[in-house]
Recover the amino acids of this structure.
DNA sequence: CCCACGACCTGCTGGC
DNA sequence: TGCCAGCAGGTCGTGG
């Protein structure tokens, strides 16, 4: 499901439910997500107050007043449902974790494929542990620019498409928004990453920010039936220029959009416009 | 070190 | 209707 805009939309959705509240109960229906939920997860955070939430790349952080930080990743198929204090919990298949707040509100983590992750890190260690120690800059933050991108791509021999998916280059991009950003700046996904010019990196950095901001403004993209935490559908999928449009006419030149596979992932692009 | 690839899972779609 | 192949928003470990 989730790249940066979808993850941020989820974070914004759960924050008002969690912030300042006491986590009164944790129900874990299965521990075998990617990497495994630690056996002592519940006992380490039960009764603690949530002091803030953050997002780093595609990860959501939930920070507790006892020094623990919960790391949540939605994988490919993870979803969050919220139940307000006066709503009854209706279990669904693949509800793996239910966080219950004092007062009765619930945050439910559902993930059919179980590629998601949930674990705890000491809050003052988070920047030193994998994958955060090596993670690239936030594309919507001050630490990201064309110059920064150009520098981080230097020497890379693989294709620009694959490099932009590497979270150590820039955080939060995934298959959709990489395809969209490259199309916007008319750069071929097959170009050698280290040979993308400084000027092109300026354009690319701007396009990345633009497409992420546009997606955020739409509540993210809803493939399948991904929903925001409040149950609303994001609608940026209607604004895709190339992603998922194999065979359709390029919006710029009318040539058919092509699909090919790079490092195991589908790439959608225009052979005429993107050079 | 860099990069491509398979593995990890379930569910849905389209073709026969 | 059933069955099977192929595909899906991500990450990590392996091996060349």
């Amino acid at each position: 499901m989730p790249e940066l805009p979808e993850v941020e939309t989820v974070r914004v959705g759960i924050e008002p439910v969690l912030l300042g509240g006491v986590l009164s109960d944790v129900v874990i229906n299965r521990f075998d997500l990617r990497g495994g939920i630690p056996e002592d997860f519940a006992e380490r955070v039960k009764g603690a107050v949530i002091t803030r939430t953050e997002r780093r790349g595609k990860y959501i952080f939930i920070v507790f007043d006892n020094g623990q930080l919960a790391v949540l990743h939605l994988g490919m198929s993870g979803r969050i449902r919220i139940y307000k204090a006066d709503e009854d919990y209706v279990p669904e298949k693949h509800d793996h974790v239910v966080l219950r707040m004092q007062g009765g509100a619930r945050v439910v983590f559902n993930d059919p494929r179980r590629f998601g992750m949930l674990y705890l890190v000491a809050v003052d260690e988070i920047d030193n542990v994998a994958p955060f120690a090596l993670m690239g800059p936030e594309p919507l933050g001050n630490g990201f620019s064309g110059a920064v991108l150009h520098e981080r791509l230097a020497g890379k021999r693989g294709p620009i498409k694959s490099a932009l998916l590497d979270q150590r280059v820039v955080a939060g991009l995934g298959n959709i928004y990489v395809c969209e950003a490259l199309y916007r700046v008319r750069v071929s996904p097959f170009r050698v990453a280290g040979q993308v010019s400084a000027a092109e990196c300026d354009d690319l950095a701007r396009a990345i920010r633009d497409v992420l901001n546009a997606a955020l403004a739409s509540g993210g993209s809803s493939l399948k039936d991904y929903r925001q935490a409040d149950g609303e559908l994001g609608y940026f999928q209607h604004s895709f220029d190339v992603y998922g449009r194999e065979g359709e006419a390029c919006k710029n030149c009318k040539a058919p959009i092509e699909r090919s596979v790079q490092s195991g992932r589908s790439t959608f692009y225009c052979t005429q416009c993107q050079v």
